[in-house]
Structure formats: C-alpha cells, structure tokens
Design goal:
Order of helices and strands: HEEEEEEEEEEE
Strand order of the largest sheet: 1-2-3-6-7-9-10-11
Largest sheet: 8 strands, antiparallel, barrel
Number of helices: 1
Length: about 270
C-alpha cells in the first residue's frame, strides 16, 4: 500500500514537471503553424491547470480527438462491503469481518482516448489499475485454489491480515465541465460505467511466528466486474464514489449479493 502511494506521488511530480515544459513548447509550435496556415498539431502531457490531456488534433474545431498516456483520476479512499444492500455482513459472511478504517481502495488511469465535443463536454475511454485492500480482523487464512471462497481458522495472532484484489479498470467517462475561471481551473461532474478484469488476488499476513508472508491466487474474485462511478471536483481535486453491480466472488453461493462500494478523494481530472 505504501509503495503504491509513493509511486503515485512520484509519478504525479514527474508528469507535472514534464507537462509544464511540454506545454510551453507546444504553445510555441501552435503559434508558428498558425502563421504559416498549416494545420495545428497540439501535443501536451499530464494534468495541469485542471484541464490538459494528451491531445492530437488537426483543426481548431469541435469535435477534437485525443489519445495518449496519462497519470490521472488517482483514487484514494475507503472500500466497503455491501451485503445484499446492507453495510452489515450477514451470518455466512462474518468471517470477512474487517476494519473499515484500514480497508481501502486505490486506483489510477495510465491511458486515455476521447473526444472533446465542446469546451464544456467531453467523453473518454481510459485504462488503469485498481486495488481493493480488505483488512481482516479475524485470525483466518483464505484458501487458494478452492471451488468456492473458503478459509481456515488459525491459532496465530496476526498483526496484519490483508485480503486484496487487483483489477485492470476500463471506465468510460462523460465529463461535464464549467468554463475555465480566472485561475484556469474548472468544475467537473464526471460519471459513467466502469468495467474491470481481474489481475489477481493476494493474502498478506504478518505475525510473530512467521513474520511477513504473501500468498497469490485469484481467491474466487469475480473475473470481470462491472459497475458505475461518479466524480465531482474543482481543478485537480475532487471526490469519487464507485459501486459494482455484480458479486465480488464467483462460484461462491454463500457470498451471493456481496458487492463492493468505494468512496474517497480523487486527484487529477
């Protein structure tokens, strides 16, 4: 978790620094091409002033298409299990009893492709990574390679018992934006569907008996999840909420109706 956060912070710093230099060069090139009458090609990287994408467009008209690498929509928040519409786990799911304050969701986008239809509305498809990190409170170990989600009770007192999943996320975003203010920032209201392909699951345990241990498996996490999200913010900062409509675990009848809801802060629009 700490490595992920440090990697994101470092990436934001590098991307922002590079973006400032690239934007200045791009503005100069854009001015030069407008004087010669040739089609303008604007290339910029990163997110600064709240509204810059990797953009490749040939005419100063809408719609404008853009594509490229990015480091944006960085989500840092809490993950919550919803059991058939309730935030309280049912009897058959009590073994997943978790610490809410240490159960988190982390994600970010690294690629995007979209179309700007106006100065205040754009649609883009992006790709990135998303982690759900569940801090279990009971001394149990999730069992790998089972027909359905299974666990065993341990006689070990774990100081950390984390059950996590990682997904390749592919959200489709509808971004309704205000015009830029005097600071160059905008208000954003972003929503859309979100799909994800399972990359893997992991159990991380720390105990005095065995030290730090990590076990990798799919742990019956659903192979493809789908849901919706919303982001609201100003400039590069905002809040997000995500809810997935299908079950967290597949081939596990006892966990039918157990779903994932996440909320928190988001950085970079």
């Amino acid at each position: 978790m700490k490595r992920i956060i440090f990697t994101i912070i470092f990436g934001v710093f590098i991307t922002t620094t590079y973006a400032q230099n690239t934007t200045a060069d791009s503005a100069k090139k854009s001015t030069d091409t407008s004087q010669t009458g040739k089609p303008k090609i604007l290339i910029s990287f990163g997110n600064h002033n709240g509204d810059n994408d990797t953009v490749y467009h040939r005419y100063n008209h809408y719609p404008k298409a853009y594509i490229g690498l990015t480091l944006s929509r960085i989500d840092l928040g809490f993950a919550t299990l919803v059991d058939n519409g309730s935030f309280t786990l049912s009897k058959q799911n009590q073994f997943l009893h978790y610490n809410q304050w240490k159960t988190s969701n982390v994600g970010f986008d690294v690629f995007q492709f979209g179309v700007k239809f106006s100065g205040t509305f754009k649609i883009y498809l992006s790709g990135g990574f998303d982690w759900t990190l569940i801090r279990l409170q009971d001394n149990i170990t999730m069992l790998p390679g089972q027909p359905s989600l299974s666990y065993k009770q341990d006689n070990i007192d774990f100081s950390k018992n984390r059950f996590s999943s990682s997904y390749l996320r592919i959200p489709l975003s509808f971004d309704i934006r205000s015009k830029q203010d005097y600071r160059g920032n905008r208000f954003h209201f972003v929503f859309g569907p979100d799909g994800g392909f399972l990359l893997g699951g992991m159990v991380k345990q720390i105990s005095s008996e065995f030290g730090k241990q990590k076990f990798y498996n799919d742990y019956n996490f659903t192979t493809f999840r789908y849901g919706g999200f919303v982001r609201i913010g100003y400039g590069d900062f905002g809040i997000f909420a995500k809810y997935y409509f299908n079950n967290m675990f597949e081939n596990s009848p006892q966990q039918d109706g157990l779903r994932n809801f996440s909320f928190g802060i988001t950085l970079g629009f």
